[in-house]
């Protein structure tokens, strides 16, 4: 199988995978565009291989492979920057929501007329049945009756 046919087959699989991820809502529409554009670009380069040579001559790159790697690096860098900005925005939103929740809890507690409630401790991990419980023998039976 030639490299061009392999590239086209790989792009078709990529497009199918992207649409499956989109259909199952594992990826949002706003992230699909770059991957579809990349797949189309690879198909165009595979169908018209002379285009890669023409572009490398136009840009002044010695070989088309170097242009391909430089372009791939630029695409990956752009995706990383975009994802970093998304993560930063989500962290800021999470912090704001946590602060608003704390203020609402304080407001509810003060409206009840009591002191602010202590934070709820995390639930204990499930105990191993063979591990000692620290209770006196028969204490489990007495606790289950109440």
H/E element order: HHHHH
Radius of gyration: 29 Å
Class inferred from helices and paired strands: mainly alpha
Residue fraction in strands:
under 5%
- Low-pLDDT stretches are 139-146
Task: Note the total helix count.
Answer: 5
- Bin the helical content: over 70%
Mean pLDDT: 81
Number of strands: 0
The biggest sheet, with number of strands, parallel, antiparallel or mixed sense and barrel status, is: none
Distance separating the two termini: 74 Å
Which shape, going by the Cα principal axes? elongated
Outline of this structure?
The chain is an all-alpha fold and 146 residues long. It has helices at 3-23, 29-47, 49-59, 64-112, 139-145.
Question: What are the SSEs and their pairings?
Answer:
Layout: H1 3-23, H2 29-47, H3 49-59, H4 64-112, H5 139-145
Can you describe this structure?
This protein is mostly helical and 146 residues long. Among the domains are: 1-47; 63-112. 73% of the residues lie in helices and 0% in strands. It has five helices and no strands. Helix 3 (49-59) crosses helix 4. Mean pLDDT is 81; it is low at 139-146. Keywords: Membrane, Transmembrane, Transmembrane helix. This is DUF2304 domain-containing protein. It comes from Cellulomonas fimi (strain ATCC 484 / DSM 20113 / JCM 1341 / CCUG 24087 / LMG 16345 / NBRC 15513 / NCIMB 8980 / NCTC 7547 / NRS-133). It holds the Pfam family DUF2304. InterPro entries: DUF2304.
């Amino acid at each position: 199988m030639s490299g061009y046919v392999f590239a086209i087959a790989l792009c078709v699989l990529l497009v199918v995978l992207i649409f499956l991820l989109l259909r199952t809502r594992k990826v949002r529409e706003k992230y699909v565009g770059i991957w579809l554009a990349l797949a189309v670009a690879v198909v165009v380069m595979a169908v018209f291989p002379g285009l890669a040579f023409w572009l490398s001559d136009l840009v002044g790159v010695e070989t088309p492979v170097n242009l391909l790697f430089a372009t791939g690096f630029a695409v990956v860098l752009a995706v990383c920057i975009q994802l970093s900005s998304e993560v930063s925005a989500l962290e800021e939103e999470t912090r704001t929501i946590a602060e608003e929740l704390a203020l609402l809890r304080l407001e509810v507690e003060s409206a009840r007329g009591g002191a602010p409630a202590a934070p709820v401790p995390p639930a204990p991990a499930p105990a191993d049945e063979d591990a000692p419980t620290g209770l006196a023998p028969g204490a489990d039976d007495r606790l289950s009756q109440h």
